[in-house]
Each structure stands twice: as structure tokens, then as C-alpha cells.
Amino acid sequence: MLHHLADPIDVRAHLREVFTTVPDAVRAERLAAVPGKRPDRLDGERSGRRTRFAAVLLALVPDAATQEWHGVLMERTPYEGVHGGQISIPGGEVEPTDPSRWATAQREFEEEMGVRVNEQDVVGQLTTLYIPPSGFEVDAFVAVLAEEPEWMPDEKEVAAVLRWSLHPEPVLTSQRIAMPRGAMHVPGYACEGRWIWGATAILLTELLAVVRWGRGTT
Question: How far apart are CA 22 and CA 121, in angstroms?
Fold first, then answer.
């Protein structure tokens, strides 16, 4: 994956170029992680669900010892909402005072992880994703940090900070999990003893496809 580009400056330059040139067909590989039939935003609004808007930020950081890259995820604390206790990319709902989706992602990341990421570290965006269970439409930003900072997670929102290694390349598999309407097999990834599935797995699958395509163009 990115292990041959140890210098964060090189990684940023490489990924910025990749994100601006990657074909839509490559991005569409994210569909492999979709757990069954998935309503879109129009379907949700036709059924009377109000669309809400959110933004998330996936930070890629190098391991200090190996210089291998990993994405920083979080395990949400349990709560009554549909995403309580799940593994997610840090982020949250757009507020009226946010001037842009990026501002939302930056603010939410800082609130949840205790670290402010500069816009100059952003290398691109993943495809905007609609999440049927909660009615959120999510914009996802990807940033490359020069080193892993000292995380100071909000204990009310973050149960654990997780590191999703990009080397060797994660393999999309399936696991049987309990759902409100019964157990089912869903595609996803293992990460530190947890299971990543749903919207997070879809976005991560697109990231892997983009990075893999970029590796082939170098």
C-alpha cells in the first residue's frame, strides 16, 4: 500500500494526485462492502425520513516504529442511537454555524479525538454516502498526518481509539452479526478484535480501492 512512501510529504503529494485522477469505476468498488439492498437518500425522503448532514475525517498516520501507515478509527460509546457502540470514522453532524463540510469534519474530529487537523493535511474526499438507518448524508475527508499525535479522546463519545493497518492490505470478509430483524452476514474488516461494517466499511473499501489504483499508476 503506502509502505514504500515513508515520507508524509511524499504520501500527501501522491494521494492528492490520485484523488484527483482516480476513475469513478474504481471508487465504485466500495459497493462490495454494502450489506444487502441499500436505500438511497431519495428513497429515505420518499418514506418521510428527514435527511441530516454530517462530515467525518479519516486521518492516516505512520507507525513510529515501522513507518507503516494506518487509519485512525474510534469505537463509539454505547448509546440508544443506531450507531451506538459501533466502529466509526471520527466526525459528526453539521451545525448551522459551520461554514463548510470540511469545517464540520475538523471541528468534530477535534471534539472527539482532542487533536486539530489542518486543512493543508487533507489529500482528498471519498464519495458522499447516505446512511439509511440514521438518515445521514456523510461527506468523508482523508488527511495525512506527519506523525501520530497524542490522542485525547472525549470519554463521553469515544470508548476506544483504534488503528486500522493498511499493510498488509486489509481483506474484506463477512461476519454474522445480530441485527434488529435477526442475525445476518455483513461484509467488513477485523480491527483490534472488533468488526468494522456498514458505512465505515464502505468508506474504507473505497479508500483501499483508490490507494490500490494509485499504486498501479506510479
Answer: 19
Residue 2 lies in a domain: no
CB 162 within 8 A of CB 70: no
Torsion of CA 150, 156, 161, 162, to 10 degrees: -170
Work out the percent of the chain whose per-residue pLDDT is above 90. 73
Read off the pLDDT of residues 83-113 as tens digits, 9 standing for 90 and up.
457 899 999 999 999 999 999 999 999 999 9
Asked if residues 169 and 208 have their Cβ atoms less than 8 Å apart, the reply is yes
The Cα 51–Cα 153 span in angstroms is 28
> What is the distance between the alpha carbons of residues 49 and 217, in angstroms, rounded to a whole number?
42
- State how many domains the chain has: 1
Q: Which domain holds residue 124?
A: 8-217
Question: How far apart, in whole angstroms, are the C-alpha atoms of residue 204 and residue 207?
Answer: 5
Half-sphere exposure of 215 (CA within 13 A, CB side): 13
